[in-house]
Amino acid sequence: MAFLTVGGAWLLALTIDGDIIFLLGLLADLARLSARGIVDLADAVWIASGFASVRWLAPVAAMVSFQLWFSYRHLDANRPDRADGVSVHRSLGLPNLVTLGRGALLAALSGFAALTPRPEIAWLPAVLYGTACGMDLLDGFLARRSERTTLLGAKLDLAIDTTGFLVAPVVGVLWHQLPVWYLSLSAARYLFKLGCWFRNRQGKPVFDLPPSLLRRPLAGIQMGFITFALIPIVPLSTVRPLAAVVLAASLAVFVRDYFAVAGTHPSDGV
């Protein structure tokens, strides 16, 4: 699929006061990354759904715009993690481009929230989200293999993961593939951030999120479960009890993490 077509990987650069600004190159690369694949998928949706593809494009455009803004805002973090005073990389690098490819897939997925399920497009949400989840393993592997782990990469990875946990459950609920109460998973991350913001606002301490042996595995389980739930031949009666189990575990970790950053619950690294 043309989502992975990025053209040149290197960005144009301007140097101002020793800081490298990548706006032109960023727009060029992300335009190739997002627009080419989205146009291809739009053609498929148009063939299957006719004028409904116009509704599909609206949320897709909003998601792509957000990803462009987020990437530009954090360009100064495109440098090695745990390395102060190191110059910013002159290119986004393949790992970050793969992460942005995941974002393009999730942007395409968001458009299905505006469509009515039809046999011609019924499998596309599961394929899009499942592919994006598989690429989540690839970008981290490439970053470690090429020694190109960056603060920007970590920020993008978290933002894209959070986007996926928002978009995919919404599509699943609207397409009657997930129970409506599963949307509490989508809300949990934002409620966590809101709680931290309120503590800062009140002058209360907000401690660093401690490492955990459960956080990433549970996220992976959620990704696998959501992909399974989006498969059109899986009945809601099968999904509902499984959703209750995986959701309860993830919400418990969110609550545990909030108590940890609030300093009211000691973390043992679990």
From TrEMBL:
GO molecular function, one term: phosphotransferase activity, for other substituted phosphate groups
Pfam families: CDP-OH_P_transf
An example Gene Ontology CC term for this record: membrane
PROSITE patterns: CDP_ALCOHOL_P_TRANSF
Chain segments annotated as transmembrane: 56-72, 121-142, 154-175, 218-236, 242-259
InterPro entries in alphabetical order: CDP-OH_P_trans (IPR000462), CDP-OH_PTrfase_TM_dom (IPR043130), CDP_ALCOHOL_P_TRANSF_CS (IPR048254)
Keyword Repeat assigned: no
The keyword Zinc is assigned to this record: no
Keyword terms of this UniProt record: Membrane, Transferase, Transmembrane, Transmembrane helix
Superkingdom, taxonomy of origin: Archaea
Gene Ontology BP terms: phospholipid biosynthetic process
Protein family membership: Belongs to the CDP-alcohol phosphatidyltransferase class-I family.
Descriptive protein name: CDP-alcohol phosphatidyltransferase family protein
Organism expressing this protein natively: Halobellus ruber
